[in-house]
Amino acid sequence: MRVMHVGSEVFPFSRSGGLGDVLGALPAEQARLLTGLGNTGADDEVSVISPWYASLSGTPTELWRGRLPELGADAGDVTVGELRQDGVRYLFIGLREFHRPGLYHPDDVWRYSLFGRAVMPVLKLLNAVPDVLHGHDWQAGLALAHAHLAGIRTVFSIHNLAYQGKWNMAEASRWTGLPGWAFGADGLEFHGDLNHMKAGLIFADHVTTVSPTYALEITTPQYGEGLEGLLIRLNREGRLSGIINGLDQERWNPRTDPDIPAFGDLAGKEAARAVLRAEFGLDDAPILATVSRLADQKGIDLLIEAMGDLVPHWNIVVLGGGDPLLTAALTGWSQHPRVAFAQGLNEALAHRIYAGADAFAMPSRFEPCGLSQMISMRYGTLPVVRETGGLVDTVPQDVGFRFADATPEALAAACHEARQAFDDRADWESRVERAMSLDFSWDGPAAQYLALYRRLGEG
């Protein structure tokens, strides 16, 4: 079986968030499973294809350079490079539209339209056409559409339905290379726009989301982002399912983590807590932390509004960047002796926070899967989460603390419950021990995806 993943980012070469983490871990685990099953021949390969960004970490070996007629006369030269790591072949498509700092830009619908059109011609040039093409999020929607039309079995994974890659139909339809019949209401059209997320949904043989609860939520108007009708149909046809994400067990391992005083038990965690207290000058109250994008989805505004109720009982540490209004509010609160705010992305600091905090707040309005709650539990930090999406599927009630309503009052009440549990050392320590024993490895999810690919091949 030859499997090709398509995505806009892949750790450690390019990453802005959870999608990059998934594309960095899932293919490697699938390759390991195939090897373990004795499938080591040339016909068994797991690959990833992604844009060759100017900021790409690593230097791919150039395999091909030239013009692709499928992209039109004005596209310029295309470069294709390769890296191999952990049994996975990584292919990178270099287009001039990606020769900029960073990953994402305002004209991304145009950029990923070009990338999506280039995927199949590149794979044919390299004799690398897969048995199954697995596209991830809207940036892969067009690539998946072309693969489906070429007769390749396809899986499309929704990592976040809120981002759909929409653009004016009259303009964007010229960028796709798709036949005219694809642009009606039963195709890519969505309220007058062309919708790349819908392209993935329409052309996939099977659609997955990154947790079973989110798969149910997106068939409702509250979470369906206007596509719930299509998703209800896919669910009714048996073509929609949820497979929970895993966690990179090597990158997130408190026993071997180079960024913290490594630990594997309750006694060792105290050293990590001491490091975090010293770094931010915190007192001896327990530490409630979050590492997050500062965005409406993540409910950080709820945390800010609840701050007055929380600081009498908790030290609060926040790491993240994004919305300037949320950033300003957190900067203001950081003047309080029990509140620390570090702006931006800082991988090493994130590890120290996960390890040193006592509780971890995730008041998300919606959360397709979430990795932070899994990381925090692996590091013995108990999550306080809203009951939505993957947070429901991964946070047992005898480990973490869950609340239903997206309000600062509900968040504060759950944090107070956690604070009471913290004062009952026997209760708290038993929760921490259960948290650290949970299995969030990629073994199970990777095997589920491989089984799905095989079912599609048998259908």
Automatic annotation (TrEMBL):
Transmembrane parts of this sequence: none
Positions of the Glycosyl transferase family domain: 278-418
InterPro entries: Glyco_trans_1 (IPR001296), GS/SS (IPR011835), Starch_synth_cat_dom (IPR013534)
One GO BP: glycogen biosynthetic process
Key words of the record: Glycogen biosynthesis, Glycosyltransferase, Transferase
Pathway involvement of the protein, from the record: Glycan biosynthesis; glycogen biosynthesis
Reactions catalysed: [(1->4)-alpha-D-glucosyl](n) + ADP-alpha-D-glucose = [(1->4)-alpha-D-glucosyl](n+1) + ADP + H(+)
HAMAP family the UniProt entry points to: Glycogen_synth
PANTHER family linked to this entry: ALPHA AMYLASE DOMAIN-CONTAINING PROTEIN (PTHR45825:SF11), GRANULE-BOUND STARCH SYNTHASE 1, CHLOROPLASTIC/AMYLOPLASTIC (PTHR45825)
Similarity-based family: Belongs to the glycosyltransferase 1 family. Bacterial/plant glycogen synthase subfamily.
Protein name: Glycogen synthase
Gene that this polypeptide is encoded by: glgA
